[in-house]
TrEMBL record:
It comes from Halarchaeum grantii. GO terms for cellular component: cytoplasm. Residues 19-252 form the MOFRL-associated domain. SUPFAM superfamilies: GckA/TtuD-like. This is Hydroxypyruvate reductase. GO terms for molecular function: glycerate kinase activity.
Amino acid sequence: MTSGTSDDADAARDRRALARECATAGIDAAHPESVIRDAVSLAGETLRIGDATFDLTDYESVVVLGGGNAASQVAAALEGVLGERLDGGIVVTDDPAETERVAVVRGDHPTPSERGVDATRRLLDEADGLDDSTLVLAAITGGASALLAAPAGDLTLADLRATTDALLASGATIDELNAVRKHLSELKGGRLAARLAPARVVTLLFSDVVGNDPSVIGSGPTVPDPTTYADALDVIEAYALDVPDAVRTHLERGAAGEHAETPTAGAAAFDSVSTHLLADNRTAVDAAAAVAEDAGYDALVLSTSVRGEAREAAKTHAAVAEEAIASGAPLSPPCVVLSGGECTVTVRGDGEGGPNLEFALSAALELPPGSALCAVDTDGIDGATHAAGAVVDSGTVTDRREARRALRVNDALPALDARGALVETGATGTNVNDLRVLVVDDSQSTKRNSG
């Protein structure tokens, strides 16, 4: 076929559309309604969660407690399974779903808020009133670290907000960020489990962290914490964070033994706690791969653990597209290469953006003709923006100097918005980390686009 502008435009549009379609399928597959339907069932008085079963005749009541972006969706799905056997509970979220038995109370994400503090106090009050006749289904999803806001000791909400903002701007990993947050909280780092004891606690996890460490997901309110006050101080020092004096003093006193450490493995608080991972990044990536294969593309999962600076990781993905076109490795086009994980941004400017937006803009500067990439946060909110991410190709950037300037000042969103590249889903009802879909066409399409 001879070169033609309409053919090239159609091929580029199809690549971008497939990248979006794959990303959408990944988000849908990780929605609690789908996940709970597959993982949880009730037969008579036997509750099945994954491979575990629970005899509900052993308990006088069953309640749902928890928090996170997807917590209310989990609660609604559990109501659908348990019906009248569910007696109530409370979840804190920024994405409310309609429920009949479980109270849904609003908080805020990614920075804790006053209403989040009030909501968390309600949750803790309920937790303190439970005993060993209660089965607690603890729904912990991505976003719980910010939404479940309970300042420890004499700390204030302002202290938490300032520290969270400093951490989010520093480029610290989620493990490091949560090591600090756990030691500034009344319920994170296993402390909620201690308050729930002796109730039977079954933790249901939707992971938004690389590696699926339960102590990092939502800052691990119901699981043992391997980190210490000293570890939290190390993070503050490593990133030279400007945190309130009250925060530094609290951590220093904790490291000196003046505050009780978060409970560790073997503590009595966890004698009646079990943990079940119901969905993670692989859930979304595998579903996206299935859509690509149904469309006739070979699919490869590059990794679900991609991390580091977003704009640098994007260059690696562009290099994968270049290699596929040049040598057929790791796959020969037409192919789709997928990845997940959680990249970070070191904020140096005052623009508007997030990790996926910076990933997409950086990729747009590097992608070869014949390829397209969609990068989204599965919760529908990239950083503190209204966009989930963006879909880009080699034609997205028309002013390379301006695109590079936008990256320098962390202002990716308006640059991508001006090119119609944003992916705007609104709150998706789930959160299983970031998802990236790289589409590479066959060599003939590439030749036409570059001819």
